[in-house]
Amino acid sequence: MASANEFRSAPGAPAAKVLAVRELCKSYGKIVAVDRISFDVGRGEIVGLLGPNGAGKTTTINMILGVLEPDSGNIRIEELDIAANRSRALERTNFTAVYAPLPGLLASTVFGLSFFAYGLALVQFLLALFVFGIALGVFACAVVLRLGPAAEWFIWPIPALLSPFAGVFYPLSTLPKWMQLVSNLLPPAYVFEGPSRPKRGLG
After folding, report:
1. Residue extents of the structural domains in the chain
2. What strand order describes the sheet that includes 6-7?
3. How far apart are CA 99 and CA 85, in angstroms?
4. d(CA 40, CA 25)
5. How far is Cα 28 from Cα 2, in angstroms, rounded to an integer?
6. Mean pLDDT throughout 14-36?
7. How far, in Å, CA of 18 to CA of 116, rounded?
8. Is the pTM of this model over 0.85?
9. Per-residue pLDDT tens digits for 107-153
10. How far is residue 18's CA from residue 8's CA, in Å, rounded to a whole number?
11. The domain at 6-102 falls in which architecture?
12. Are strands 31-42 and 80-81 parallel, antiparallel or unpaired?
C-alpha cells in the first residue's frame, strides 16, 4: 500500500511540470492499493516508483495512463486534467505496457471485480471475440492449406501483432492516429475498449 508521500524535485531551477499527481487514492474493496500519493515530474526529469510487491506502483501507473479510474485525487498531464480531457492528455504520453493479467477468480474474490457486472453487454463482447476468433482460425487454416505447413511461421505471430491495435494492453486513445484507424476495423478493439467506457463515460 502506498502511503501519503510527496516526491519533490531536486533543488535548482524549477522545471516545467509534465505530470502532476495530487492525493491519488485507489482501493479494491477493503484493500487500499494507493493512499493519497502526490508527486510532480518536471520536463527532462527521471522519476522512479520504488516499493515491494503490492505497494501500489503498477496501480499508480495504470491510473496515470487512464487504464484505471482513481477513487479520488487528480492527475494532470501537461496541465490537462485526465478526468476531463482524457484523450488529449493521453496523446501526450508514451510508455511501455505494464499490463499483467489477473485471473478472474482472484479478481472476483479478492478485489470484488466481476465481468458479470456488465450484464447483457457481456454477451455481445464475448460474441464479438468468438466470431473474430473463428474468422481468424479460418484464415489461418486457409493459408496453411494453400501454402503448406511452412506457412505456420506466418500464422502464429498474428494474435500478438493484433493485440496493440485491439486495445488489449492500453486505451486506444493513446495510440497514434494511424493505429486508431486500424483499430476501428477490428472487432476486438470494441471488446477491450468497451468495458472501460460505461463507468467513465469518456471516449
Report:
1. 6-102, 115-200
2. 6-7, 31-42, 17-28, 72-77, 80-81
3. 23
4. 16
5. 14
6. 85
7. 38
8. no
9. 555 445 555 666 676 787 788 888 888 988 888 888 888 888 777 78
10. 14
11. 3-Layer(aba) Sandwich (3.40)
12. unpaired
